[in-house]
């Protein structure tokens, strides 16, 4: 059954039989997004229908959002259009590790960049894996064994996206220039100006994700800790610019576990010591089980490919 819910000024359309939604997490969505700044680049590895991606885009962030479940990606795309933030979201339907590897891999040349950044409407032709099962970020069983081919995801090039965006901006400018005979602005002009104040458009050149992203969201508490291994040797020092990204990894902590034991698991998977970790309690999901968000700056010791290669050589 398709229904609509509203949170923090956003509308979400979904089918409860196909995707996961929990209204009790609204405050957590608001809390995390409040840490993002306008113009920042966000990677959402397990995005679902967009509880983090949509409000982040509304705030003026550029969001690269991925989910293994094609139904989640369908509703993410739908919700982006409903909330008029489709220009701020790049949607992917693939394995989370391959998603991060693709974003952080520089193209052979700058001219090939447009074949590496699929836009929101490019997921319509992407295929989901057909064998193996895994519980995805929306709580449904989906395939994982067959990783999506990048070429199946990228159907068009970035030039067409830029052209469409430019056309929309020109249309808005024309509307804003229209005035009545008395010199007052038209209703359409006022509406468009209000929209422009709410969401700041990005420049025609998309950010190079292999050079910088600001935050990575890992909202799959049952197994997100296991996906931290993707960050070991993921970046290349010669390309990266600015501070390393913040990682926000959701997890469950049982009564038999502690923050220290969870941190040890995270450090083992990421291959380095995590400095100044922050554990935030989200909610209790059972008498002896709670959901937490572990936030930390990605450790430089293991994230660069050069360091990872040296560590491997020393281990041998």
Automatic annotation (TrEMBL):
Database matches in PANTHER family: TRNA (GUANINE(37)-N1)-METHYLTRANSFERASE, TRNA METHYLTRANSFERASE
GO terms under cellular component: cytoplasm
Region (Disordered): 177-200
Superkingdom of origin: Eukaryota
Transmembrane segment boundaries: none
Amino acid composition bias (Polar residues), ranges on this chain: 177-189
Gene Ontology molecular-function annotations: tRNA methyltransferase activity
Feature: compositional bias, Basic residues: 190-200
Name used for this protein in its record: tRNA (Guanine(37)-N1)-methyltransferase 2 isoform X1
GO biological process, one term: tRNA N1-guanine methylation
All residue ranges annotated as the SAM-dependent methyltransferase TRM5/TYW2-type domain in the record: 1-300
Keywords associated with the record: Cytoplasm, Methyltransferase, S-adenosyl-L-methionine, Transferase, tRNA processing
């Amino acid at each position: 059954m398709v229904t609509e819910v509203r949170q923090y000024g956003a509308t979400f359309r979904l089918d409860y039989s196909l995707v996961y939604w929990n209204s009790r997490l609204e405050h957590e969505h608001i809390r995390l997004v409040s840490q993002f700044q306008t113009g920042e680049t966000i990677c959402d590895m397990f995005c679902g229908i967009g509880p983090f991606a949509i409000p982040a885009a509304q705030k003026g962030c550029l969001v690269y959002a991925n989910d293994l479940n094609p139904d989640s990606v369908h509703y993410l795309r739908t919700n982006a259009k409903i909330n008029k933030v489709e220009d701020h979201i790049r949607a992917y339907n693939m394995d989370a590790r391959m998603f991060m590897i693709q974003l952080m891999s520089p193209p052979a040349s700058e001219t090939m960049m447009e074949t590496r950044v699929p836009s929101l409407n490019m997921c319509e032709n992407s295929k989901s894996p057909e064998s193996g099962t895994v519980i995805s970020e929306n709580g449904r069983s989906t395939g994982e064994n067959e990783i999506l081919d990048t070429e199946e995801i990228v159907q068009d090039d970035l030039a067409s996206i830029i052209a469409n965006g430019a056309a929309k901006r020109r249309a808005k400018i024309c509307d804003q220039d229209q005035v009545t005979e008395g010199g007052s602005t038209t209703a359409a002009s006022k509406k468009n100006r209000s929209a422009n104040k709410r969401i700041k458009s990005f420049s025609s050149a998309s950010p190079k994700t292999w050079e910088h992203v600001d935050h990575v969201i890992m909202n799959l508490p049952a197994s997100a800790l296991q996906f931290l291994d993707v960050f070991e040797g993921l970046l290349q020092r010669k390309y990266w610019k600015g501070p390393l990204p913040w990682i926000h990894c959701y997890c469950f902590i049982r009564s038999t576990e502690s923050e220290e034991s969870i941190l040890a698991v995270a450090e083992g998977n990421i291959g380095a010591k995590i400095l100044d970790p922050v554990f935030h309690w989200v909610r209790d999901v059972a008498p002896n089980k709670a959901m937490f968000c572990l936030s930390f700056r990605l450790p430089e010791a293991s994230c660069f490919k050069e360091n990872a290669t040296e560590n491997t050589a020393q281990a041998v």
